Amino acid sequence: xxxxxxxxxxxxxxxxxxxxxxxxxxxxxxxxxxxxxxxxxxxxxxxxxxxxxxxxxxxxxxxxxxxxxxxxxxxxxxxxxxxxxxxxxxxxxxxxxxxxxxxxxxxxxxxxxxxxxxxxxxxxxxxxxxxxxxxxxxxxxxxxxxxxxxxxxxxxxxxxxxxxxxxxxxxxxxxxxxxxxxxxxxxxxxxxxxxxxxxxxxxxxxxxxxxxxxxxxxxxxxxxxxxxxxxxxxxxxxxxxxxxxxxxxxxxxxxxxxxxxxxxxxxxxxxxxxxxxxxxxxxxxxxxxxxxxxxxxxxxxxxxxxxxxxxxxxxxxxxxxxxxxxxxxxxxxxxxxxxxxxxxxxxxxxxxxxxxxxxxxxxxxxxxxxxxxxxxxxxxxxxxxxxxxxxxxxxxxxxxxxxxxxxxxxxxxxxxxxxxxxxxxxxxxxxxxxxxxxxxxxxxxxxxxxxxxxxxxxxxxxxxxxxxxxxxxxxxxxxxxxxxxxxxxxxxxxxxxxxxxxxxxxxxxxxxxxxxxxxxxxxxx
Length: 525
Fold this sequence. Notes:
By secondary structure, the chain is of the alpha+beta class. 42% of the residues lie in helices and 9% in strands.
């Protein structure tokens, strides 16, 4: 059940719920027919233009995104990190084992004697259930069981020893891992983010400027959500990079595409950051570039409400609902930050999304019947936008109901499971306190496996196409996923259930007069 929309934030404040023991599945294993990752692509391939590369990665399927069938796919392999043990493994469809693929030097796994090629078959004396390629069971089997066993050990007041049963060739071994008390994951991943910022204020991605800008917006937002005062100098540099010396956000005055290609994506995360910073600091200098972005999104929309990766429509004129739903989120935040939003554009895009939303509350790729298996990012971003705007409460509740019902699909968002987890968590925090708690309960093992021995974040992808996430850099997007999910406990950002304004005062404006004037410049389209 979802709670009614009664205000800006309906999620209850407090600590993250404790995880519950894994439930053993009694139903038949299912499988999906999508490849786990685009391992054949080299993400630094200079012969493939970044814009073309990105469009190939997130191009729509020609059929429903995921097909589920009875049986299994034994060739399906799912990589996952081993969390604070230090290392990585693979789960294989229809197998009850996890195959160790790497062991980090001087980490608990190495000290316990774990080796690449070992097969982990049980944790704390409990054999694993069979792993399935189905998206409806998340990572039930070895990954989830190992994550939950680590959680239980870390919470134990004494005897924090993890015991794994391992097969090495024909030999069966019992390995024991001494685990320290878990530190604050948010602190560790923020250290990771701060340490990897480049001199120009950006974070580097493997495939060029569009990805650099997109991930810079997300990582700066992560720092703002966690002790923004301590991270303010780093965030200032990121804002300066994204806005640019002329204040125009690399957006031409006629709102045609800027450099890098597919620029709606980085313009969106820039808008999220500027809006949250404007609300947090009260800094009026941020309003001009934020208004520029809100106006550009409206100008780029077609008369029928469709949008694409840039000002051009994507995919044979069908548009791309994932852009529309994120634009609504930028507009909702922009209005809270003091911007004027084009009501006609909001309404026209809303009509498109309403026509694309099923009775189950999931938002499809287009208005066409493309299915809901990868709907979490579209549904989450639109539900969060409606909650923040205080509009269409019945539709917002229906969307939240989809996210609650299909929380185990949250990581399935076509090529970018990251934004499925991020936007889905935001939406549940804003719309359903019970749904948010259930979501964290279901996915606590996931955050545990992402948390490395040094406190940094490692990537744990979806069961489908992770190409868009790889495009951003695995370590970068892992920090953003974990950081923004955990931020919903802090309730600082409006996206995370916060209600206060001016909670991060700044002594001097972030932008100068020239940047403000440049941001306000317009040209006829």
